[in-house]
Design a protein that fits this description.
117 residues, alpha+beta, seven-stranded antiparallel sheet
Length: 117
């Protein structure tokens, strides 16, 4: 993971509980299946970056090959969000890698990931 910028512009964290349910078509009774497990999701928005800095981020995200490879947030990331990201392994949430470029060659990068546990 590139070291610059040291932290994202913003990060949204989600806990996904592994719970499901069904409803009987005859009685309307609901049965809940609680697997007593969860995982974390994150939506990460990086600050605007010039071309020279953004290229390392684009290369990093491409190198993850979608959901194939995993990563850890850098120590600088962890320091900005203590107790939220530390020690977890993450992978992209899907196979999509996207970035935006303005006419002035300023890049906007946003990615979604999920914990591997």
């Amino acid at each position: 993971m590139p070291g610059v910028p040291a932290a994202p512009e913003s990060i949204d964290l989600f806990q996904v509980n592994l719970v499901s349910g069904t409803v009987s078509p005859f009685t309307g009774a609901q049965q809940i299946f609680d697997w007593q497990a969860n995982y974390m999701r994150a939506s990460v928005s990086m600050p605007a970056m010039p071309y020279a800095i953004a290229q390392s981020w684009v290369a990093f995200l491409k190198s993850l090959t979608g959901i194939v490879n995993y990563f850890q947030f850098s120590a600088a990331f962890d320091a900005k969000y203590p107790n939220d990201l530390q020690g977890q392994y993450w992978r992209l949430e899907n196979n999509l890698v996207k970035w935006s470029i303005t006419r002035e060659r300023v890049y906007s990068i946003q990615f979604n990931c999920r914990s591997t546990t």
